[in-house]
User: Which sequence fits this backbone?
């Protein structure tokens, strides 16, 4: 199994984009395109990762509050779980949903305990994670908070994250020791079908007054160009385009935020 991750604490230059890609997967991260105009603990609190195994791919992005520790803990936990989801053995939909929910509970508990030990406010953390299994025609996804999960099919792009389907105030991992409100998270398994691309993005791409005013349309537009690239360039081109477009929007509005994305494209 191949894995890669990027932690925001190592990427702190405004305007820079750092990227890792392999096969159908790519991740990118940036501190942002302009200085933050709100109070923050660390300059870059985002994180992202991919894992690529015989059975499929895991993608994840996380956005920490009160420091980068929460996002890093979430990514580390998911990468440790990845071998059980990405081997060549068939995976049942119900089992994957249960596993994802259990992983969210464990991450919430650990983030909360870490914050208490460090005498920090509970380090609330946004998380979106996808497990895709082409051989099982399976797309499992989970999201808490306001990060996105975009899926492109037949030239159209939709957002299947919790935030896209709710106008409620988001919940976050680690605000409490457990996830007490099931209405504040989304865990599902659906058909992968004819998906051509999946992109997870933190809210530096979409936050009002900072990122794109219509993030779904912005993502759909850039995919027209990047999915036309050679197969081995599609994932890195898409992840770089996502990050660069977010930075451009932030510069235009003179208000920055961290950006992290994780991308899979069909080869």
Assistant:
């Amino acid at each position: 199994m191949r894995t890669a991750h990027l932690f925001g604490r190592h990427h702190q230059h405004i305007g820079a984009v750092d990227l890792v890609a392999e096969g159908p997967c790519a991740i990118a991260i940036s501190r942002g395109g302009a200085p933050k105009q709100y109070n923050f603990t660390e300059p870059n609190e985002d994180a992202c990762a991919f894992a690529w195994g015989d059975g499929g791919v895991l993608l994840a992005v996380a956005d920490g509050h009160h420091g980068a520790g929460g996002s890093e803990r979430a990514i580390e936990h998911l990468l440790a779980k990845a071998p059980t989801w990405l081997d060549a053995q068939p995976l049942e939909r119900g089992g994957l949903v249960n596993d994802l929910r259990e992983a969210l509970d464990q991450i919430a508990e650990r983030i909360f305990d870490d914050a208490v030990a460090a005498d920090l406010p509970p380090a609330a953390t946004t998380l979106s994670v996808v497990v895709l299994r082409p051989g099982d025609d399976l797309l499992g996804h989970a999201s808490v908070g306001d990060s996105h999960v975009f899926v492109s099919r037949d030239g159209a792009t939709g957002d299947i994250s919790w935030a896209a389907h709710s106008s409620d105030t988001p919940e976050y991992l680690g605000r409490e020791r457990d996830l007490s409100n099931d209405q504040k998270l989304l865990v599902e398994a659906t058909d992968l079908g004819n998906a051509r691309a999946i992109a997870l993005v933190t809210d530096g791409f979409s936050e009002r007054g900072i990122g794109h005013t219509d993030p779904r349309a912005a993502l759909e537009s850039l995919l027209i160009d990047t999915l036309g690239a050679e197969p081995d360039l599609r994932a890195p081109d898409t992840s770089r385009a996502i990050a660069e477009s977010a930075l451009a929007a932030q510069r235009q509005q003179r208000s920055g935020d961290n950006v992290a994305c994780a991308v899979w494209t069909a080869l």
About this structure: Residues 181 and 262 are 27 Å apart (CA to CA). The chain has one domain: 2-265. The first strand starts at residue 2 and ends at 7. The mean pLDDT is 95.
